[in-house]
């Protein structure tokens, strides 16, 4: 049975809901929730209608900086939280279509990412040189990032995405990722086993870009795209060192959607995964046998 998932309501008027406005609304909602102030008291004190408050929290209304500052002050937000949210609110009118979120410790816990993964119908990810984060074992993630916090957060994120009613996930792995050992032979062995098992998971499709595939500009850099039920537009993002760049305007988002179309064209399924991982599997077995012989 599919579990109910909360989704943003369609905008009721000319103001458009964007990824940034929904992120801003969620930040404000969390401040208000932590304050524990009843809706009736909040709206009466500020002279707002309940509808205005609701639209602010769901990202479906353009709100003045004065309104946001007033709400944060009334809810007793600390200075760091207030400065962060006001900075976020001020940027919504600049650089329309793309925005950057710095990794404050862990890329997998960015609010804008986790928020939209709750609503996503499909998630498609591609990495050219490593197993994508949504397919990594916790040990592989730790070996790759050097952070136990990030590895645990990544594992928790994967479990949440695999919940009943969660999105369909397509993970593209370049065969080059199987030609280098991350961590140790055991870490790689477990990672290859994980990818093989994922072929039988409902709603998850690991696919391989073979090294024999014709070179394409789309295969040079990582990318991900989330799609949603109407009326929300797709959201694309690319993780770089120290930050993630998000795109929700058609021109910029279209470039990443085109990248995904190219990976679909050259990606192979379960048979391709088996063929791509076979050389690494043989290499790991040879190393294991060599270690056993050395102990004799």
Structural summary, described in words:
- With 296 residues, the chain is an alpha/beta fold.
- It has 2 domains: 19-91, lambda repressor-like DNA-binding domains (434 Repressor (Amino-terminal Domain)), CATH 1.10.260; 98-295, Endonuclease, Chain A (2-Layer Sandwich).
- It is 49% helix and 14% strand.
- It has 11 helices and 7 strands.
- It has helices spanning 19-35, 39-46, 50-57, 65-74, 79-91, 111-119, 138-145, 148-161, 185-198, 250-266, 270-295, and strands spanning 98-102, 122-127, 168-174, 204-209, 223-227, 235-240, 243-247.
- Strands 1-7-6-5-2-3-4 form a 7-stranded mixed beta sheet, with helices on both faces.
- Helix 9 links the parallel strand 3 (168-174) and strand 4.
- Helix 1 (19-35) runs antiparallel to helix 5, helix 1 crosses helix 6 and helix 9 runs antiparallel to helix 11 (270-295).
- The longest helix is centred in the C-terminal third of the chain and has 26 residues, at 270-295.
- Mean pLDDT is 80; it is low at 1-14.
Total individual domains:
2
Largest sheet: 7 strands, mixed
Cα separation of the termini: 55 Å
> How many individual helices?
11
Q: Which residues sit in consecutive blocks of at least 5 with pLDDT less than 50?
A: 1-14
Give the amount of beta strand, in percent: 5-15%
* Helix/sheet category: alpha/beta
Number of strands: 7
């Amino acid at each position: 049975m599919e579990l109910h998932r909360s989704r943003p309501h369609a905008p009721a008027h000319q103001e458009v809901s964007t990824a940034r406005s929904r992120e801003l609304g969620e930040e404000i909602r969390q401040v208000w929730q932590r304050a524990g102030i009843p809706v009736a008291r909040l709206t009466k004190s500020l002279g707002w209608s309940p509808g205005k408050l609701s639209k602010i929290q769901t990202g479906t209304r353009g709100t003045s900086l004065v309104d946001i500052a007033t709400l944060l002050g009334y809810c007793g937000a600390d200075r760091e939280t207030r400065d962060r949210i006001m900075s976020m609110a001020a940027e919504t009118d600049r650089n329309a279509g793309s925005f950057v979120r710095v990794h404050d410790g862990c890329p997998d816990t960015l609010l804008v990412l986790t928020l939209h993964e709750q609503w996503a119908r499909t998630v498609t990810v591609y990495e050219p040189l490593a197993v994508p984060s949504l397919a990594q074992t916790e040990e592989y993630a730790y070996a790759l990032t050097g952070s136990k916090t990030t590895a645990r957060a990544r594992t928790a994120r994967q479990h949440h995405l695999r919940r009943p009613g969660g999105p369909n996930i397509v993970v593209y792995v370049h065969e080059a990722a199987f030609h280098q050992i991350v961590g140790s032979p055991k870490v790689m062995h477990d990672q290859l086993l994980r990818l093989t098992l994922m072929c039988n998971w409902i709603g998850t499709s690991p696919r391989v870009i073979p090294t024999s595939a014709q070179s394409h500009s789309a295969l040079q850099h990582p990318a991900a795209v989330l799609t949603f039920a109407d009326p929300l537009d797709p959201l694309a993002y690319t993780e770089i060192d120290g930050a993630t760049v998000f795109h929700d305007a058609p021109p910029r988002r279209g470039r990443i959607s085109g990248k995904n179309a190219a990976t679909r064209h050259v990606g192979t399924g379960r048979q391709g995964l088996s063929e791509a991982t076979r050389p690494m599997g043989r290499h790991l077995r040879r190393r294991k046998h060599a270690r056993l012989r050395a102990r004799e």
